[in-house]
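R.M. (postdoc): so does anyone remember the format we settled on? I'll just put the structure tokens first.
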């Protein structure tokens, strides 16, 4: 094998690894998290390589990049239509598989006059573990719970 094809093999192995990690994880990891995971299999891989492969896979439409205000992108190996629920407190992103009613999409289409190709909604809120932590810590929650009974 000449050095060019050796290089190509290495590149595609890196790309396959990044894609596999992303498809296996259900929690929309950041590039940094993917990098930490990739190093376990391929210790020589660099963060720059991970970013390059993520960008490439995104451009090919094989993964989705979810960028939210604060600048840190999360990546998603699931490209079928689905929606997201993001926690305002810890930043975790979960999939929402509920189907959006067709009537809603039609309403949006009528209002915007856009030809809608796909829908990806983002819901924001506080996740169960953050909400649980908050309830335990605030004295008001005791009072609230006490007054209910
Ligand atoms: Zn949370
Ligand atoms: Zn997702």
């Amino acid at each position: 094998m000449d050095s060019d094809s050796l290089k190509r093999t290495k590149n595609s192995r890196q790309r396959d690894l990044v894609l596999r990690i992303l498809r296996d994880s259900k929690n929309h990891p950041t590039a940094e998290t993917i990098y930490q995971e990739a190093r376990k299999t391929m210790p020589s891989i660099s963060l720059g390589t991970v970013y390059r492969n993520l960008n490439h896979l995104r451009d090919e439409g094989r993964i989705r990049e979810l960028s939210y205000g604060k600048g840190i992108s999360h990546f998603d190996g699931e490209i079928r239509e689905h929606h997201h629920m993001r926690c305002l407190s810890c930043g975790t992103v979960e999939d929402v598989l509920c189907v959006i009613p067709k009537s809603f999409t039609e309403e949006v289409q009528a209002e915007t006059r856009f030809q809608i190709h796909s829908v990806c909604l983002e819901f924001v809120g506080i996740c169960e573990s953050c909400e649980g932590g908050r309830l335990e810590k605030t004295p008001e929650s005791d009072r609230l719970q006490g007054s209910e009974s």
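R.M.: ...and that's the designed sequence above, right after the tokens. Also worth knowing: The pocket of zinc ion (ligand 2) is lined by residues 28, 76, 78, 82, 84, 95 (CB under 6 Å). The first strand starts at residue 64 and ends at 67.
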